Prior knowledge:
The chain has one helix at about 10-45. The chain has about 45 residues and is mainly α. The protein has a domain at about 20-45. It is rod-shaped and about 60 Å long.
Amino acid sequence: MTDQRPQLPDDLLASRRKAAVRTALWIGLVAVVIYVGFILSGVIGR
């Protein structure tokens, strides 16, 4: 079975990869902020 997806130009592929990395970094940053917020709420809530 061969891959039937059309091949994307290198510049389009690179821009999509860059956008995916940027999105992953933002999601990771939000997760860290939420994690730190929970830790701080536990420390401050004592």
